[in-house]
Specification:
alpha/beta; Aldehyde Dehydrogenase, Chain A, domain 1; Aldehyde Dehydrogenase, Chain A, domain 2; 2 domains; 6-stranded mixed sheet; Ald_DH_N; Ald_DH_C
Length: 480
């Protein structure tokens, strides 16, 4: 990375901001990845205006040109997956193999939506009136504001930017200020494509300035946001007031149900993967482990044994499975929840300690609680760390009741050999995604993603369902 500060990209030009912040490596707090310009409110408004001017030009661009452009972005991401994966792991803290995998997945989003460009088919219908033809087709929604979180700094951006561009929209992109390097690298690739200036804009900066300017704007047509529930509620209120289309992915409190007939090895590996990989910093992480009484003790003992085999360390170190927590404030929050859970009566049976490793980073050992119940704050609130709580239940019906007793509804998993229970679970779990004998974390890019209740609001993301957010339907009546 260059020693020069990295600039914002507005109206086809790289622009300095009102100030600059340093991007620190959570695996090594003395390692500064780079310095990144912070956009002002005025620059954010300028980016929106540039997008407004450019969007009709991009929408009028031929389908093959749009398709080839998106393919080129995906191709470059794959060609540079090792380089960019290393950068991503360095700034976010996930192990190198996960960082490389995220870059590759980001490329798949661009390739998928490149194909979707050529699948934009209209419909016809017969009129109830004689001599009239009806045509139904989709048009771009217009200017899309995109606000992304820090835990998937490239993939979340890709699954929003790719469909926005594919369907002919212009973009104003605000990444999380904690992880600007991956977003900047993706934006630099996009900047070299043959887009009308202003079609794509990068505005790095704080939520209080750049984010607030976006969500309060009356000059955007849609806003897609992934982040916390409190912020999501504010986004919903602001966009509703301005009659701006809104799509929100927010909090979660996912559960993995383990029935008495579960394959113990599968149950343990799914719990380990879902609860602790990615340092638990996934919206799909299984922080509640709902375990039936007959298998409870064996499951806990086997999970503890596997947890003790996990290697915690520097994200770029070979063999590391659990990297650092993304930042000091998140680590302190994790530790406060550990203390709160014990004060509420849960028993810490493994991990939870802060680790002093060299070089200095934000490390903690994954933690497991037992003797927890669903009324505890540790089981009600999203922690976003490598902390899981076992909730003992009597049977399947008890497990299902506990599973659904939450304000969230993103993912849910069940480990069972019973076809009857698996089929019933698929119908009655009040979540947007259901996993059977799989970790709660891990989804595909070509199918819809999203939750229910306070986890999601608005149309689904990903797959063909993305068009519901990024396009508007027009119905045309014609007398030949």
């Amino acid at each position: 990375m260059s020693v020069q500060p990295y600039k914002n990209y507005i109206a086809g030009s790289w622009c300095e901001g009102q100030d600059v912040i340093a991007n620190h490596n959570p695996s090594d707090v003395l390692d500064i990845i780079g310095h990144y310009h912070q956009a002002s409110a005025e620059q954010t408004r300028a980016a929106i205006a540039a997008a407004r001017a450019a969007q009709p030009l991009w929408a009028a661009t031929g389908l093959e040109q749009r398709q080839q452009l998106l393919m080129a972005i995906g191709d470059e991401l794959i060609a540079r997956k090792d380089e960019l994966g290393r950068l991503l792991s360095r700034e976010e803290g996930k192990p190198l193999n996960e960082g490389i995998g995220e870059v590759y997945r980001s490329a798949q989003f661009f390739h998928y939506y490149a194909a979707e460009v050529l699948r934009q088919m209209g419909e016809t219908a017969a009129s109830v009136r004689p001599g009239i033809d009806i045509e139904i087709h989709r048009e771009p929604v217009g200017v899309v504001g995109i606000i992304t979180p820090w835990n998937f700094p490239m993939a979340t951006a890709a699954w929003k930017i790719a469909p926005a561009l594919a369907f002919g929209n212009a973009v104003v992109f605000k990444p999380a200020n904690l992880v600007p390097a991956s977003a900047w690298a993706l934006s630099e690739i996009i900047s070299r494509q043959a887009l009308p200036p202003g079609t794509f804009n990068l505005v790095m900066g704080s939520g209080s300035i750049v984010g607030e300017s976006l969500i309060q704007s009356t000059d955007i047509d849609a806003l897609t946001f992934t982040g916390s529930l409190p912020t999501g509620r504010r986004v919903a209120i602001a966009t509703a007031t301005n009659l701006v289309r809104c799509q929100l992915e927010m909090g979660s409190k996912n559960a993995l149900v383990v029935l008495d007939d579960a394959d113990l090895d599968i149950a343990v590996e799914c719990a380990l993967n879902g609860a602790f990989f990615g340092t638990g910093q996934k919206c799909t992480a299984s922080s509640r482990l709902i375990v039936c009484d007959g298998i409870h003790d064996r499951f806990v003992a086997a999970l503890i044994a596997r947890m003790r085999q996990l290697k915690v360390g520097h994200a770029l170190e070979q063999g590391v499975q659990i990297g650092p927590v993304a930042e000091a404030r998140q680590l302190e929050q994790n530790l406060r929840y550990l203390q709160l859970a014990q004060e509420e009566g849960a028993t810490l049976v493994e991990g939870g300690e802060r680790l002093a490793l060299e070089p200095e980073g934000h490390y903690m050992r994954p933690a497991l609680f037992i003797d927890s119940h669903n009324d505890m704050r540790i089981n009600r609130e999203e922690v976003f760390g490598p902390i899981a709580c076992v909730i003992r239940v009597n049977d399947y019906e008890h497990a299902l009741t506990v599973l659904n007793d939450t304000e969230f509804g993103l993912t849910a998993g069940i480990i069972t050999q019973s076809l009857r229970h698996a089929s019933d679970f698929k119908r009655r779990a009040r979540t947007g995604c259901v996993m059977v004998n799989l970790p709660t974390a891990g989804t595909d890019y070509h199918v819809p993603f999203g939750g229910r209740k306070a986890s999601s609001f608005g149309p689904r993301e990903q797959g063909q369902y993305a068009r519901e957010f990024y396009t508007v339907v027009k119905t045309t009546y014609v007398r030949p």
